[in-house]
Amino acid sequence: MADNIQLHPVRKSSKKHLYYNSGRHSRYQLEDEASHLDEMPLMMSEEGFENDESDYQTLPRARVNQRQRGLGWFLLGGWKILCTSCCEWLAHTCRRKKELKARTVWLGCPEKCEEKYPRNAIKNQKYNIFTFVPGVLYQQFKFFLNLYFLVVACSQFVPHVKIGYLYTYWAPLGFVLAVTMVREAVDEVRRYRRDKEMNSQLYSKLTVRGKVQVKSSDIQVGDLIIVEKNQRIPADMIFLRTSEKNGACFIRTDQLDGETDWKLKVAVACTQRLPALGDLFSISAYVYAQKPLLDIHSFEGNFTREDTDPVIHESLSIENTLWASTVVASGTVIGVVIYTGKETRSVLNTSHAKNKVGLLDLELNRLTKALFLAQVVLSVVMVALQGFVGPWFRNLFRFTVLFSYIIPISLRVNLDMGKAAYGWMITKDENIPGTVVRTSTIPEELGRLVYLLTDKTGTLTQNEMIFKRLHLGTVSYGTDTMDEIQSHIVQSYAQVSSQSNGSSNSSTPSRKPQTAAPKVRKSVISRIHEAVKAIALCHNVTPVYESRTTVNGETEYTEADQDFSDDNRTYQASSPDEVALVRWTESVGLTLVNRDLTSMQLKTPAGQILTFHILQIFPFTSESKRMGIIVREEATGDITFYMKGADVAMTSIVQYNDWLEEECGNMAREGLRTLVVAKKSLSEEQYQDFENRYNQAKLSIHDRALKVAAVVESLEREMELLCLTGVEDQLQADVRPTLELLRNAGIKIWMLTGDKLETATCIAKSSHLVSRNQNIHIFRPVSNRGEAHLELNSFRRKHDCALVISGDSLEVCLRYYEHEFVELACQCPAVVCCRCSPTQKAQIVRLLQQHTANRTCAIGDGGNDVSMIQAADCGIGIEGKEGKQASLAADFSITQFKHIGRLLMVHGRNSYKRSAALGQFVMHRGLIISTMQAVFSSIFYFASVPLYQGFLMVGYATIYTMFPVFSLVLDQDVKPEMALLYPELYKDLTKGRSLSFKTFFIWVLISVYQGGILMYGALLLFESEFVHVVAISFTALILTELLMVALTIRTWHWLMVVAEFFSLGCYVASLAFLNEYFDLAFITTPAFLWKVSVITVVSCLPLYIIKYLKRKFSPPSYSKLST
């Protein structure tokens, strides 16, 4: 049936369509595809698409809701949605964003800018000096609970409706507001200081008069800025010059895209060739830059120099850019600023922090609305029973205020203090040292999570690559046999040096037939020699010597020759895999000692320097999945084409063999990242022919990329397979058991990474994010609606398999089939999204929140994870190698990924369970006294007179019951060890059974029963004076509350016992001073004691019996484990 459901395009969504398709080819437009896509069914669940005119993007549920919108919808919350929409529209109209435009930037001439661009200031504050008080008050009073307290407190200024003393209403409310304001003020001051520190960083600005120091916040578009090594780039710039002689430098982008590998950036050739720095002002040149975009991986622009004949034009791409928040890793760079402030890539990819509200707070807010409704109904019933006589409307308001204890004002005070206590406990937990609670309002969220969205680099992995395996087909070498390779390399280069007088090539022995044992031995040596040499040459790694940053080229070479064995040599590359391979060749004796744009030098074990000229480099791309290099050896003149890449790309390129596929599978199962290495020897004629065709293809205007790829592919045939390498990305400590723990707890884990698809898949396997018996569905790259349609159909047929999808394909799927895609992805046991931009990570979090209504948690360690962390219901940052940006933006900061297990299973569980018990008990405390008030008023002719006045009410809510009730924050149903041993217990928490309308209704029944017994019992047993009723009922009430706390507690703590006896002692001691309310002579009589005792026993004993029977015949799951 599902197969026959037809898909119908939207005919009315032209605005959305134009927004999404701006700048894209017309072939992606909906109208062109609608004709054939209508005939293609997208298999959906049975609820399917009900109406023929339905939108392919619309959720079935949403359409049902739209049909049901009416008066009921309006009264039950529709008014709120409409008001919010109107306010948002007004705000949007008032502060309409300026349209971002492309720009022409003249070098060193900010005054020539045609438009005014934003200041280059970082601003993370939520409020300013004028909006702080209104903003905080709005955040507090948007909750019904607080607004209700405010109205009740204000009503006490009106004499006719005044019930008690003003301080009984205003003191608790003032306390809550004061605590909130102080907490927000401290957070704001911290944010202000952090922003000021960043904005005050000094940079060298190049002017006609020389260098001047300028603050980061004062940098303008068009300024020429000098950035030193290890300095943060303050704004988005075009790279003009560098102190490195090769005209290129490395930058660290970990705070932008989360990748810790260094990126190679190339200076504009025209400005790099200028003799001196000051010549930048002697030329007339400008940069044309496209409008600011979100995409951190692309850029289009042009550099033009006008004062030459002919005019020089240079195209600019992503490799000529230096984005803000990245760090210069080598040399000194000079750039021209093109985007500042909120137009920079890093700011565009950062979402604003939102005020997070916990699910428990929202649930309590709903319950308080129900209580308010009950309060109003009760008041109306009282006035109706009076017969609506006299000023009934005033009486109605008095009754409403009289029953206001139904919603106790101490609820917020207790919960806020409880949250602070949980935060303190988390911080002081010795098992998770270094944990910091930055948002103290949502600790209960840790116990309600269903989705965990995690970064990969630095979160699951350490991003430290270690070479583990070399496979030559007939022989395999692991970490324990690397010394054999080292001896073979020493031996082979000794042979080469002894044969250096002859013309024989070191690779010749490998081509001879293997007939005798000595020949085989020799063949293995020569094959290892070729494999190690290929690995040492086929890469984009540059060795750097830290001590030589200011010397000129000649000195650097001379010193480098002397210092080739120095420990201060470090390797820079855009991939940590390549660094691991080059470090490994160094460990076995063949060391990369120098490299520039045209040559590289290797040092043999004997200390001989081999020079190779780089003729061509074919860089790695996600499409080709391989990289190649053509080198000429200086000593022999031999030209060799080396290539390495993923097995899927290399299998068809290398000569036939029977072992490659099997060994790749074996290494992948071990969690190793595999690379296939191959070579091809070229004659001079072959290379010249290739070079001519290659250069011709590079000059073509149409389909340049395709033509260049076709020429390169002509070389990639019948290559000689040299070896297969296996590299391991070191996982963080205890990642595997932690992920297994979370999976058993029913938490679905999604990995969102900016890394390559192959890397992400490999880590998903090695970290056991995807279990061994699960299949992986790799979502094919899709670029339009038709391809997405077919691929979703193909994915739908898969069952219980993990999904791996790239950011580009994800974007296409979400544009056309958002609901369908999310529905399918949520059924997967694990999802891996690779090549994700920071904005996409946050978008995925919001999608899960909207489509599943479950609580999400995001965990990361880099600046690129901040948007995701802020968007999630609960954000966790890891302090790691990528700095503290994620940690500072998060709600909770931890030092290691493994700590998340205890944070969720133990602290999340305790915080939620304790807050649920505390919240409901405080409500019970208010309900029981309101029930007594109702009974009292109904018996005494429905008089709107308070039963307990003045200090009795204040004492009841504070000193008499506060400590035992608050001691519930020390309660625990399961020991921490048990919660970690049986993570399945966590699944119950996500169902929200600890605080629901069912549990709330049970507490209401208990309150009504106990309030009725206490009041009727006191009225039945008192003899002469009314003051005796107050004494008996109030004393029994205090004892009942203390006994109910004891009944609620599951695990006793010594502080709970102290709190119980301290409160009882305070009450007994205060009786001596309460002669205004009590008859002291009556209190000291045995009659008082037995009457109080009888009433207390009748109110509490049945509940103790029920609890015992329930524990015996229907125990909760955790109690079975405890026993």
Automatic annotation (TrEMBL):
Localization in the cell: Golgi apparatus, trans-Golgi network membrane; Membrane
Transmembrane segments: 167-186, 370-390, 922-942, 948-970, 1000-1020, 1026-1047, 1054-1074, 1080-1106
Keyword Transport: yes
Binding site for ATP: D455, K456, T457, E578, F620, K644, R673, T753, G754, D755, R835, K841, N864, D865
EC number: 7.6.2.1
Keywords for this protein: ATP-binding, Golgi apparatus, Lipid transport, Magnesium, Membrane, Metal-binding, Nucleotide-binding, Translocase, Transmembrane, Transmembrane helix, Transport
Positions of the P-type ATPase N-terminal domain: 113-170
Biased composition (Low complexity): 496-510
Cofactor needs: Mg(2+)
Domain P-type ATPase A: 211-345
UniProt similarity note: Belongs to the cation transport ATPase (P-type) (TC 3.A.3) family. Type IV subfamily.
Disordered: annotated segments: 496-520
Enzyme class: translocase
InterPro entries listed in its UniProt record: ATPase_P-typ_cyto_dom_N, ATPase_P-typ_P_site, ATPase_P-typ_TM_dom_sf, ATPase_P-typ_transduc_dom_A_sf, ATPase_P-type_domA, HAD-like_sf, HAD_sf, P-type_ATPase_IV
Catalyzed reaction equations: ATP + H2O + phospholipidSide 1 = ADP + phosphate + phospholipidSide 2
GO biological process entries: endocytosis; phospholipid translocation; retrograde vesicle-mediated transport, Golgi to endoplasmic reticulum
GO cellular component: endosome; plasma membrane; trans-Golgi network
GO molecular function: ATP binding; ATP hydrolysis activity; ATPase-coupled intramembrane lipid transporter activity; magnesium ion binding
Principal location: Golgi
Protein name, entry field: Phospholipid-transporting ATPase
UniProt: Mg(2+) binding residues: D455, T457, D861, D865
Membrane topology: Multi-pass membrane protein
Residue span, P-type ATPase C-terminal domain: 888-1115
Catalytic residues (positions): D455
